[in-house]
Amino acid sequence: MEAADVADTTSPSVVCSGLDIVYTVFGAKQKGTDTGGELPLVERLLTKRNPVSSVRKVHAVKDVSFVVNHGEAVGIIGRNGSGKSTLLRAVAGLMPPTNGRVWASGRPSLLGVNAVLLTGLTGAKNVMIGGLALGLTPRQVRERYDDIVDFSGIGDFVNLPMSAYSSGMGARLRFAISTAAAPDILMIDEALATGDAEFQARSRDRIAEIRRDASTVFLVSHSNAAIRESCDRVLWMEQGRLVMDGPTDEVVRAYEQSHRKATA
Amino acid sequence: MTIGHSNVVEDVEAPAARTEPARLTPEEAAALARGAGLEELGVRPGLLGYAREVWSYRHLVWHLSSAQAWATNQNNYLGQLWAVLNPLLLVGSYYLIFGLLLKTRGGTSNYIAFLTIGIFVFGYSASAIIAGSRAVVGQIGLVRALRFPRAVLPISVTLTQFLVNVPAFAVLMVMIPLTGEPFSPHWLLFPVALVFQSLINLGLAFFLARVVNAARDSANLVPVGVRLARYVSGVFFSIPHYAGHGLLSAVLLYQPLAVSMTTAREALMDQYPLTWGSWVAAAAWGVALSVTGIVFFWRGEGRYGSS
Ligand SMILES: Nc1ncnc2c1ncn2[C@@H]1O[C@H](COP(=O)(O)OP(=O)(O)OP(=O)(O)O)[C@@H](O)[C@H]1O
Ligand SMILES: [Mg+2]
Fold first, then answer.
1. pTM reported for the whole predicted model
2. pLDDT in tens, B63-86
């Protein structure tokens, strides 16, 4: 087995077996989104959908299995809506599996592009709440507060509500919070994409640092360059299924080829 | 014990068809995870372990509640002043309707004090129940971003509503002597009444938060129920005076929301002497509802945030 070139690759930190995630979506609008609206009344009544309730199931992750070891950096790639974010949420213990089982070591820290903490509250309050939720004590958060704010580089804006932040500023603060607790498993969901070049370089260094402590890193990104730079293994998701799991070069090349085929 | 690093699990659009990889069976995966000392996600811990876990997140509860209580009145120019203005305006308008127009003052000697206590005490329960029922579904962003025992949410929502209502209780304590109530050491019991009431609110929040998470639509019924309760719990009128002393009156008087108001009035008003019945009832409701509530909520742990 060609394995990651990082320490301690023999002991798994995440085991995922036959994972299924199904979302229940409320308020799915049916009229106009399908042809039912134009059908004659009788046929409309005969089509199976319940006209009153607007609930639909979305099978976002289908039968996914993998094992990831300590110190590995795993990229997750795939088209929009292929289930990457959902998979990460499940592995972070934030979405209960509909089927299958997931095991993980320690407390995963998920940094999603939409991981809004509490937008109505100031950055400073979010640092405290995020830190406490990641398992720090109030004292530890206060000790690391300056580091977190420095690393985020948002300066005085830390005392403004997060709803007044630009998306890059929000991403910087979230990244600073999530990495402050030295997580066993760090998951980054496109969170770095909105940062500027300087921040991306700094966050790459931070990720490398975290990996050196034998933590596992998951990185979801649509930038194949970023994946190539930080990951040594890649999972390719397609319509909720894990299509390919292997070394970065091989999988990213196959993924790029599949685009070319699609556009040709 | 390694997993193939070049597994093509299923060939949807991968370049060339490959051989089916050696996938772990569920049993092998479980054994591997157990061997590595990993923790299974999405499973419910034991009740005691759960309670311990919730306790370890007490700081999160406090910071979440205080920050959100403060933010409640931040998005306008007068800011925190509204925390005091709102209850005053409320009392003014209710006095106009029920004191002067509808005349429901029967059986009360100090109607303004009676009405003010009713409005503020019931107002706390009403806002805590409505917010509590949405404790999980209304915070789905937080639920999907951070991992913590979900019981933190109903607890922090109840605490938030308590903190939001503290200015109203302060206004109440200023108004009571102004309405002509003589000073009394019984006033010191008012915080105790609020503790029992908070336990009642917390219990209801646990029950409703899980029910609403499982069946969204029920969230629409909660405000209706609260409005109904407002009219039968003796906010504006004295229950014994209008409902007599029969079984119906006893049921109306000893339901948890009415009992909260009775204990508050007994603590603050000269006309109502302390009675064991109402204080024991309030304590019993508080303990029973919050204990059964957390058990009920715990049984749904692992399913919050799935819809
Ligand atoms: N909160 C949600 N409620 C209901 N369905 C959802 C929710 N989030 C995602 N889905 C559905 O699950 C599927 C997978 O979504 P997911 O967000 O995991 O995709 P993704 O791979 O992260 O996409 P992207 O690259 O755009 O971030 C999609 O079909 C989407 O419609
Ligand atoms: Mg996504």
1. 0.82
2. 999 998 888 877 667 667 787 788
Q: Is the CATH number 3.40.50.2300 carried by domain A4-263? A: no
A27 C-beta neighbours (distance < 10 Å), count: 8
As a whole number, mean pLDDT of residues A81-99 equals 88
Chain-chain contact of B29 with A105 (C-beta, under 8 angstroms): no
Q: Vertex A215, ends A78 and A111: CA angle to 5°?
A: 50
Q: Ligand 1 centre from A187 Cα, in Å? A: 16
Quick one: pLDDT at residue B146? 80
User: How confident is the model over B118-176, as pLDDT tens digits?
Assistant: 989 999 999 999 999 999 988 887 887 788 899 999 999 999 999 999 988 988 898 89
Report the gap between the CA of A144 and the closest CA in chain B (Å). Answer: 16
Q: Do B306 and A102 touch (CB under 8 A)?
A: no
Report the distance separating Cα B72 and Cα B80, nearest Å.
Answer: 9
Q: Which helix (H) or strand (E) holds B26?
A: helix B26-35
Distance from residue A34's CA to the centre of ligand 2 (Å): 25
- Per-residue DSSP letters for A144-198? HHHHHHHHHT-GGGGGSBGGGS-HHHHHHHHHHHHHHT--SEEEEESTTTTS-HH
Q: Is A100 helix (H, G, I), strand (E, B) or coil?
A: strand
Instruction: Please give the span between the terminal C-alpha atoms of chain B, in angstroms, as a whole number.
Output: 36
Beta strand segments in A200-263, E: 216-220, 233-238, 241-247
Q: Rounded CA gap, A245 and A14, in Å?
A: 15
- Out of A101, A116, A261, closest to residue B40 by CB: A101
Look up residue B144 and give its two tokens. Answer: 């999907």
Enumerate long-range contacts of B270-279, CB under 8 Å, 24 or more apart: B270/B110, B270/B181, B270/B182, B270/B184, B271/B108, B271/B109, B271/B110, B274/B186, B274/B189, B278/B254, B279/B196
- Closest by CA to B289, choosing from B154, B92, B191, is B154
User: Is some CB atom of chain A closer than 8 A to the CB atom of B67?
Assistant: yes
Strand A12-25 relative to strand A56-69: parallel, antiparallel, unpaired? antiparallel
Most confident range, picked from A54-58, A165-169, A230-234, B244-248? A230-234
Which residues sit with their C-beta closer than 6 Å to ligand 1? A 23, 25, 58, 60, 78, 80-86
What single DSSP character describes residue A240?
Answer: T
pLDDT digits (tens, 9 = 90+) for A105-153: 877 777 665 555 787 888 999 899 888 888 889 999 999 999 999 988 8
Q: What gap in Å lies between CA A19 and CA A157, rounded to an integer?
A: 41
Tell me how far CA of residue A46 lies from CA of A39, A41, A56, in angstroms: 10, 9, 18
State the nearest Cα–Cα gap between A111 and chain B, in angstroms: 7
